[in-house]
Each structure stands twice: as structure tokens, then as C-alpha cells.
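Many introductory courses stop at the sequence. We go one step further.
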Amino acid sequence: MLEATLAGFRALRHEFELRDARDWDRAVTLQVGEVKETITIRESRVTAPQQQAPFRAPVRVGGNVRVPRKELDVRPVYPAAMREAGLTGVVPIEAVIGRDGTVSSVRVLSAQVHPDFAIAAVDAVRQWHFTPTLLNGVPVEVVMTVSVRFDLEEPPAGPAERAAGSSAGGPQLDDANFCCPEYIETMTQRIRSNWDQQQGAAGQALVKFTIRRDGMLTNVEIAKTSDNPLLDLESRRAVIETRQVPALPDQFRRPDLTVYLTFDYKQ
């Protein structure tokens, strides 16, 4: 058995019998490797005609063959329908990099890929551009395999989600960089003074309201119900009857501030 290996080339293993002297003279041809790339997605001037070069089959690059370098990278766009449906997927692709560095052909290697993912991946890969690959000083086509992964991550919690589970003393704002925590404390105490926590039932209601520049409380609504109309009513009443809190601080430049306040009832 003959084994031959060289860095960047595919290993060769061949079994044969040495019956006479000429069997000892063997020509060994190694195939070079292939270009591989994995990406994850968590969004021409007409030239003069040139003499046609002789046909060469695409090679699989490796060893002493120069690896093509990507000059133009276009990221696939996550299909909106797949994102809304919460679907993820991986698209395996085989592409051919032409002698001029453009991607001359693209094909999806699996029939199990959703068409929307396949189209998005192929559209992006077709636009890639590479430096030409030279084999013995002559530009050649190169086979490349690509894995395009479409994945989703959980979005950060918004004000309503962060406020859920907190007490009336821990409001959440639509401005994470609000200037003045002492103002929030004063506002919360003013509303708490109008709130009757003893309702003979347990539950938690989340109230959303807006503080205008002059301190008036408007747009009071239940952002998350306690599933008990009595508790929801009392929570909303506490804010409405407060009616006004101190004016927004001068350091806060916006005309209003949206607040999410949780009312926690114990039986």
C-alpha cells in the first residue's frame, strides 16, 4: 500500500502489487483541498473582448496554491417571514470562484433547506468577490464550500418586561439614561401615598403613564393586567388621583417621560 501526504493537499492511499521492476515506477498526483467558509447571520464597465483562455476544470485550493482573499463581502439578509415565524436554519452551499475572482456559480447542497433561507444565502454569495487564484502563475477557478447560518437571539427586555415583578418602588422608564434618580423616588412616593394596597386579594398590575414637562400625569393605562379587575382599577386610580408630580428636571431635555409602575398586592 502506498500512502502520500502533503500539507494543504488531500491524502492519497493506494493499494497495488509489486510483481516486476516496472511496478516500482509510479506517478503520484495529489488533489489540492477546497476553500471553506462559515458565516452566521443573528440584515460594471464593458471591457474590450479578450482572447478566450483554454478550459480548466475548477481546482480545490490548498498546499502551494494561493488561497483567494475576499475583497467584497455581502452579508445575507434574514428573511422577514422566517424571523417573524421564529425559524432558524443552516444553508450549505458550493460555489465556484471564477478566474477573475467573481462567483460564477452557486448551488445549495441540501434539499432540506427552506427556500427563503436558500434564496437569501445564494443572493449574498453571488455578490462576493475574491482575488484571483493562481496555479503555476495562471488564474484558475476554485471550488468553495460555504455554510450560512441563520440564527435568532432573544431580544433585550423592554420597560414593561423589566418592570414586571418589581414593586411600586421600582419603576421602569422609556429612557434608560434618565438623569435624576431622586426625581423618580419623589414621583413614586407621591403616587404611593394615594394607593391602597389592602384589597383583600393578591396580584400584580403594571400601569403605564406619561409625565409631561409640567409634571401632569396623562395616558394612564394598564400595561399588564393582574387578572383581577378590582386590583387593576385601584392601580390605575392611584395614578389618576395623583394627577400631578413635580415638573420634569431641566437636565432632562425631552418633553415627556413614559413610566411603567408595578403595583404588588398581598392577600
